[in-house]
DNA sequence: CATAATGTGTTGCTTTTGCAACGGAAAATA
DNA sequence: TATTTTCCGTTGCAAAAGCAACACATTATG
């Protein structure tokens, strides 16, 4: 994509200029927002890490998305079809900007610079999110736990431009992200080590194949 | 969402007004586009049905997305990370508009009405796509074939506002869409019938529970 | 209309995954 | 630092899903 709007600097420059937003700070494990109760919300994660989490009727926990710096999230990205509440949980201390989506979309009355630039660049920002979601779908459609793990590792490896990288999750959370049973995943990790596909040192994975 | 931009009428009104697009017609089973070879492409399906399909190394076929009238697709929504080509296959006769995304984004020089309206409404269009993808992720994170089937049926039921609806897929394709083995899915369908969750008459499903 | 191609429905067997449980390591907290 | 909580790593067993094969139905196609 060519128009590489620099969200980070943009936010630094303008995040204090608009009246129609809220900026809040959260500490680890606090609930940042919920999607059923907070409609039409668009949030930007300025700092920290957070997960979008769902619990199903059987008590399974799913990490629907994992957010890091500059991630966009909020109910505007969802059409809630089930009764299961979606929670955004802070995984570390977080700073979050909250908007009402319509305010961005219809521009705020003040016509502030922040809103103007944001709405101009919104297609690109949302498009980035679409590509993230498509990567996630690619992972989830893989048929076996092994392929999910290898697919995820290869993705991290591509992002870090290195065959060696830290997992951004605990292994427990990784299982919830790949939507598999934790113990089965651990078993598969062991097999991947035994079969010479990976090495694992603490939280660091080293890809050996190819 | 409040801004319900009427894509259909918009396209009817303006689809002939812009020079920077191509309109093509495809017949069933033809390849509409491929994502590795055609970068920076944004397409709108004016008519018909088409699937975005990927084949993995094991020969498994996955229906990544199912497109119907007014769907947006194209490489702009993807960051190709694997070597697996993604194909859009026409499932019926299709009419498709092709754009170069940058042309939309940077507005075309002619400043035509079509481009202007489209780029104004692009955030909303892409946002609709995001909600579709999130629904797909919700389906794929379900842990069992049974839950995937019930989840998908409940989704169709919500869309049609009826507990009785036609499947938009053949059963073979449905398995590829839910990312499960076809015969295992057939077995589960039988069990769902036996357990009184559904009835199935030809291609029509009737939800019985609740 | 005959024939080919594709889709449906089923089943036995194998493999993978999930579940439950546990001990010990590591990290958080009082 | 003592203690609680969370996470890691492992295993036996049960359940679910995948694979392969087949017969039959339905739909395209020459």
Write the layout of secondary structure elements.
2 copies of one chain form a homodimer.
Chain A: H1 7-14, E1 22-26, E2 31-34, E3 41-47, E4 50-55, E5 61-67, E6 72-73, E7 86-90, E8 94-100, H2 101-105, H3 113-140, H4 145-160, E9 164-166, H5 171-178, H6 182-194, E10 198-201, E11 204-207
Antiparallel strand pairs in A: 1-8, 2-7, 3-6, 3-8, 4-5, 4-7, 9-11, 10-11
Helix pairs in contact in A: 1-3
Chain A binds a DNA duplex (30 and 30 nucleotides) through α6.
Question: Which protein chains make the most extensive interface, counting residues with beta carbons within 8 Å of the other chain's beta carbons?
Answer: A-B, 44 and 44 residues
- Tell me, briefly, the overall form of chain A: globular
Rg result of chain A: 19 Å
Q: Roughly what is the average pLDDT of chain A, rounded to an integer?
A: 85
Query: What kind of sheet is the major sheet of chain A?
Result: 4 strands, antiparallel
End-to-end C-alpha gap of chain A: 28 Å
Report the β-strand fraction of chain A as a percent range.
25-35%
Which residues of chain A sit in consecutive blocks of at least 5 with pLDDT less than 50?
none
The multimeric state of the shown protein is homodimer
Widest beta sheet: strand line-up of chain A: 1-8-3-6
Helix content of chain A: 25-40%
Sequence of secondary-structure elements of chain A: HEEEEEEEEHHHEHHEE
Number of DSSP helical runs of chain A: 6
Q: In total, how many beta strands of chain A?
A: 11
- The class by helix and strand makeup of chain A works out as alpha+beta
């Amino acid at each position: 994509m060519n128009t590489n709007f620099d969200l980070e600097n943009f936010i630094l420059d303008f995040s204090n200029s608009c009246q129609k937003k809220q900026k809040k700070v959260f500490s680890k494990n606090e609930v940042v927002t919920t999607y059923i109760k907070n409609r039409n919300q668009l949030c930007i994660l300025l700092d920290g890490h957070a997960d979008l989490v769902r619990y199903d009727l059987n008590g399974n926990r799913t990490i629907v998305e994992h957010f890091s710096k500059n991630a966009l999230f909020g109910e505007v990205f969802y059409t809630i079809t089930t009764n299961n509440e979606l929670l955004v949980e802070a995984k570390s201390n977080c700073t979050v900007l909250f908007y009402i989506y319509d305010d961005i979309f219809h521009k705020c009355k003040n016509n502030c610079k922040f809103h103007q630039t944001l709405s101009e660049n919104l297609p690109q920002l949302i498009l980035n999110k679409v590509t993230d979601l498509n990567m996630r779908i690619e992972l989830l459609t893989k048929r076996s736990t092994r392929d999910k793990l290898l697919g995820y590792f290869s993705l991290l490896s591509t992002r870090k431009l290195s065959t060696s990288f830290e997992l951004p999750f605990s292994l427990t959370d990784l299982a919830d992200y790949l939507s598999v049973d934790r113990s089965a995943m651990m078993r598969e990790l062991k097999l991947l080590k035994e079969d010479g596909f990976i090495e694992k040192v603490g939280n660091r994975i080293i890809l050996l194949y190819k």
